[in-house]
Write a structure and sequence with these properties.
Radius of gyration: 25 Å
Structural class: alpha+beta
Number of strands: 10
Shape: elongated
Strand order of the largest sheet: 2-1-10-5-6
Helix content: 25-40%
Distance between the termini: 29 Å
Number of helices: 11
Largest sheet: 5 strands, mixed
Length: about 375
């Protein structure tokens, strides 16, 4: 559920540049316009998604270990319904393994996928969901019968007795209590070394598995970044004195220098940055020009439409994004020029970046050079 919410947060139905899975079809039936309040919503849902995914690794491994006999039972197919059950089991196990592997690789920024992570992870999730529904449909009657009986062991030779018990079991190497304790302790250990990157603050020191380390630096700009200016090909000339912000809309076009932006009314907003990899910052104090004030420069009033945001970034993904009208109209949505009382550092998007409450980090576009209001993207 948190994964599907993460996908919705990108507002993929809004514009092609937001949609990482353009052939999703009816799989996107549930999508909705992502809200801006509460402002910490994406930080919570994605933090839970990634943290829980890592914590459940020992549970997944234990589950797979426990059902190994069923994966290799003979004969492999006994009837049409049994064949469908076996197929759902294959997709269930394969889907779970695929989602965990691709998710963990993404958290560690290790992109070795034969395509877009978003597309692969999205389709993999729906394969797992479909297989899970079929699997539950087949197994639920048996589970209900077992719960209702609640008396001793099932009779020998019955379907319930087949279960996971070997006909001639060897001496146990670990007790059930010991197995559960081992899995539980493994999950707790992963929680301790993972959750800090989502909680932020002092707790980040405990995030041993954080992909960028535990110390993001000091000072006003001393908080986490994914993309540095160098990694996406930002040159000094791109953000130097010749830099301009171009604002387009129904009322024409306006080019603004950095000094002109600073001369406009400055507003403040305390907002975090939260990314798909699960890490997030605590609230940072941003200051800059409201997006609605920039829209007013090109003839737009209170009913400000969506905006296409473009960056001078050359390499990598998410060089542009479309923000919904709801996001644009929020009074906390800024073209930020400063953070925590200081000028933005190059890695945090100098000279100007977007900051929007509740949006995924990649939609808080850095090194902004163009805003186009109301034009389909």
């Amino acid at each position: 559920m948190t994964g599907l919410l993460s996908y919705a947060a990108y507002n993929p139905d809004l514009a092609a540049v937001n949609d990482q899975t353009p052939d999703k079809g009816w799989l996107g039936f549930y999508l909705f316009s992502w809200p801006t309040s509460p402002y910490w919503l994406y930080r919570l849902t994605q933090g839970v998604h990634v943290t829980l995914g890592v914590v459940l690794v020992p549970v997944l491994l234990a589950k797979l270990w426990s059902v190994i006999p069923k994966l290799f039972e003979w004969p492999p197919i006994r009837s049409a319904s049994h064949a469908l059950d076996r197929l759902s089991l294959l997709l269930l196990v394969g889907g779970a393994g695929f989602e965990f592997v691709t998710g963990i690789l993404n958290v560690q920024l290790h992109y070795i996928f034969p395509g877009s992570f978003y597309t692969l992870h999205f389709y993999g999730a729906w394969v797992f969901i479909g297989a899970f529904v079929v699997h539950v449909t087949f197994r639920l009657p048996r589970a209900l019968r077992a719960v209702r009986r609640r008396l001793g062991e099932p009779a020998a030779g019955t379907e319930e007795a087949a279960g996971l018990v070997a006909p001639h079991p060897a001496e146990p190497t670990i007790s059930r209590r010991g197995a559960l304790a081992m899995v539980g302790l493994g999950s707790v250990a992963l929680l301790v070394v993972t959750a800090g990157q989502s909680i932020g603050g002092w707790w980040r020191q405990t995030a041993l598995l954080a992909p960028h380390g535990r110390d993001p630096g000091s000072g006003p700009n001393g908080f986490q970044v994914n993309k540095t200016a160098a990694s996406v090909g930002i040159r000094p000339s791109d953000v130097g004195p010749a830099w301009r912000l171009t604002v387009r809309g129904p009322g024409g076009k306006v080019d603004l220098t950095y000094r002109q932006l600073l001369a406009m009314t400055q507003h403040q907003a305390a907002l975090p940055i939260a990314c798909v990899e699960g890490w997030s910052t605590t609230d940072q104090q941003w200051s800059g020009v409201r997006l609605t004030d920039l829209a007013a420069l090109v003839g737009l009033g209170v009913h400000t439409p969506e905006v296409l945001v473009e960056s001078v970034q050359r390499g990598g993904s998410f060089r542009s994004a479309v923000l919904s009208d709801r996001q644009v109209r929020d009074s906390r949505s800024l073209l930020a020029l400063r953070v925590n009382g200081a000028t933005l550092s190059p890695d945090h998007g100098y000279p100007a970046r977007i900051i929007v409450p509740g949006a995924p980090g990649v939609h808080n576009t850095k090194w902004v050079t163009r805003l186009t209001f109301g034009e389909p993207a």
